[in-house]
Amino acid sequence: MQGHRMNRRYFLKVSGAAAAVAGTGLEGILATGRAPAWAQGTKLHIVRWVDFIKEADVELKRQAPEASKALGAEVVFEFINFNDLQPRITAAIQSGAGADIIMMLYNWPHLYASGVVDVSDIAEPIGKAQNGYYDVFQATARVGGKWLAVPHGVVGNAVAYRRSWHNEIGAKEFPKTWDEWREVGKKLKAKGKPVGQALGHSAGDPPTFSYPLLWSFGGAEVDKSGKKVVINSKETLESVKFMQAFWNDACDEGGAAWDDTNNNRAFHAGEISATLNGASIYIVAKRTKDKIKDERGEPMFQDIEHAALLPKGPAGQFALYVPFQHAIMKYSKNQKLAKDFLKWLHAKENYEKWFQVNEGYNVGPTKVWEEHAMWSKVDKPLQVFRQAVRQSRMLGYPGPASAKTTEAYTKYIIVDMYAKAVTGTKAEDAVQWADGELKKIYEKA
Amino acid sequence: MKNSVIGGAGGAARVEVALPHPGATQHRALTRFLENERLLATLLLAPTVALLGLFIAYPFVMGVWLSLSSTSVGNPGTFVGLQNFVRAWNDSIFRTAFWNTSVYTFWATIFKLTLGMWLALLLNRHFRGKRLVRASMLLPFIVPTVLSTFAWRWMFDPTFSVLNWTLYQTGIITTKLPFLSDGTWALSCAILINTWRGMPFFAITLLAGLQTINPDLHEAASLDGANGWKRFWHVTWPLLKPVTIVVVVFSVIQTFSDFQLIYVLTGGGPANSTHLLATYAYQIGVATGLLGEGAAISLFMLPVLFIVVWIQLRYLRRLEGA
Amino acid sequence: MLIERRWKKWVYFYIPLTLFVIGTLFPFYWMAVTAFRPDHELYRSWRAVNNTPFWTLNPTLAHFQDLMAKTTFPRWLWNTFFIAVVSTAISLFCGLLAGYALARLRFPLAGMLGTSIFVTYLVPPTLLFIPLADIIRNFQLGNTPWALILTYPTFLIPFCTWLLMGYFKTIPRELEECARIDGATRFGAMVRIIFPIAVPGILSAGIFAFTLSWNEFIYALVFLFSPERKTVPVGVVSELIRGDIYFWGQLMAGALLGSVPVALVYSFFVEYYVTGLTGSVKG
Description:
- The complex is a heterotrimer.
- By secondary structure, chain A is of the alpha/beta class.
- Chain A has 19 helices and 13 strands.
- In chain A, α10 crosses α11 (234-250), α17 (403-410) crosses α19 and α18 runs antiparallel to α19 (427-442).
- The radius of gyration of chain A is 24 Å and the shape is globular.
- Chain B has a domain at 96-281 and 297-321: MetI-like fold (Orthogonal Bundle).
- Chain B has helices spanning 27-67, 83-90, 92-123, 130-137, 139-142, 145-155, 162-169, 183-211, 215-223, 228-256, 260-265, 277-287, 291-321.
- By secondary structure, chain B is an all-alpha fold.
- By secondary structure, chain C is mainly α.
- A two-stranded antiparallel sheet of chain C has the order 1-2.
- In chain C, α3 packs across α14, α4 runs parallel beside α7 and α8 runs parallel beside α14 (248-282).
- Chain C is globular, with a radius of gyration of 24 Å.
- Chains in contact: A-B, A-C, B-C.
- At the B-C interface, α1, α3, α4, α5 and α6 of B face α1, α4, α5, α6 and α8 of C.
């Protein structure tokens, strides 16, 4: 009798162990239908920015327990201000402790390359399965041929403007070139409704305006090799001079002190007629339509239109979107768990829910999301974000995006070049200044 | 021989006059005392030395090493000598930050001193509600700086500023004042807020100093025919100088290394016009991850502070010696 | 004669005092109005009609409620209070002992030690916090209140020491001499005679230390990151600015709640504070 029982117990023990061994990883989960056994109390800590669309964060928080169940460990999201992301990453890497996964914007993976884990084994399959990543991610998340972060999405931007006001002064379509916009803006400013643009020290709106402005006039930080600083050029000077004139004629001068939130508030308060922003102005206006009304008492979102790209300059039309990706930190003790989580997050049924809540503010990292059914249902003004990512360039264009371009961006050199010019510095001096600063970054050993 | 001061406010670092110990019979006891003193002193100073040693001295040395290396986030650096310092000195943003910090500290200190002194003189009188007023004057100092700076930021907001609204409604201005959008205005606003916040510290400390001044001296002076201003200049001010200098020293140190106010108010903008050394060091070291360069920028503060403080303390010692 | 003196009193006393009070307290009034103002009034254009920036006819407690219920603000208040109290206690303890030693005892290196304690005050926090992050990590204190409780005394002790040193110097030596003649040890005399007399100075230093800890930002920003561990300054800045929106109503409510209680406590102690400072500045 005893032998029997022991045999049975022994059998159960062995089969249980076998199941546990096979149970790690997503393959394991699918094989056994049971969550794997991580150490008791394992927590996966993910740090992301506070989304401008708060429902997106709500959706992520909602997904957390599902992910926890699927992975067998507790998944915790923490949302911080995007301007605090970089300090947080630095503190975490330096002290060797902190969140397991941290969101990285632009091409930050280059800057933090030595502190993150190679995730090519996760990123490649996702890209292949979803019609390929956008080119911009090759610049941002891929360092030395390896994927150092898993692309997650792109925050597009476009010029949000008040349709009725523009119609009033005869601009039925949004101005196509910079000079046209200047004229339109001039007329609107005379009516007390200037263009609003942020040029302060903030990570979102100021760079996404300044860099494309520079590129559209033919200026650039560096040449194709990324080694020579070429900002001190006729084209750059043109763009700066234009900006000075545009600022005086058409813009709200307070913009030099604006961060990423001021233009949203000013637009919603009916203070400005147009501004470059993500889709948040429209979406927030729509979702709080009883609070945000225009001067006639109507919900304002009905009057908001988007122009897909910034106006054309002599050298073409450019955009700088904000791609973001998730990096797994090298100090993390839960790297395998983190990789599984990212796989789970990008599984179609999970990602799609988050994607839909965003309504175009955050778009997917791969081309397959352009075809999603959601696009046929969103409001017309939001349609512009559908394929816009294809046009986005990256910091340092036309040179490669490297840690140095990130340094230049964090120091706000391009933004400040324009900010200086519009707050009293001569155009030539502003360009000279930027030249000096960039040289120190790009040409140092 | 008493060591206390009659009728005046002294300074903190006076040399002690030793009490004469009577007789040689206490020679043995004296030795015991001295022995005890050293042991006791070591004991008493141990916790302080331990804490400060571990959490300031050691990190300071590490910080200095950082500044002499090319460390960046995640990459332990190599020794590069004074390269970071040279780079900082050649960096125009650094020079701007240095200049801003000096201007900011200079003007804020002057305003705080003048207004603080004035307020202290006012509060030194007796009037109804004296206690309440004194307590409420401390409020700007008590409120966490970030929170009060937010309130000010809201008051200076480019779009919704209440100050602009008031001035506009009363017809004084026709367009918005660029409180935070113009470089010079922004720095002036920062100085204003710093003055607002720091003046109570000056006022209360100077008030304490004023209260140590014997009123008889004022009586005597006014009997001699001196009016208010003369009395202040010739009686009050000399006696108040030591306290003033100490307060100024502490204030200068705090203001020169100020971080919170600018970080919350403008983040260093517009176009670096309000960047201070501390905020720039933070931006370079932490935000950009160039730890070596950030440490070098922070270290630049040290010699300046040292010189300023040394000069003032020398002056203080001279005052006390006289 | 009487009229002239009255006029003088008004011009030289009442008016300036009133101006000071208004100038100092206006921002608090503003904070209060914003904290009680409903959202739809907060974001109106400055040129809108019926704009009443100085008062609101629809006061609401919504911001306070949201602050207490939807954020971890009460937790932050507690954290900040706990950290401030313990840091102050540690600093006072060290400052008392060190201040006495430097003021009263003679021993080699006294001058140098005194100066070096003061010099540590000059070291800027922006230099220290990266190396400190390493130390904190080695002791595994990251993200705990102890990281702050042990680092705050670094800037509190020098000031407490100076304050108490000055205070001690005003206390006549005879008191200790008498006690020692009566058989007390130096240490006993210090604790039983000197410290009680120095209570105003201790209160003064304590209040000052508490204020500085309550107010500290950069170390708290770098060493704490979980929302429930944060202190009030860091929590408010990082949690009440969500992406696009500054929750001004809640921010100001937080500012009020984060300062008024402390101010109330201070109003009881302010006389002690002044007396304490008086003693120390005399020395």
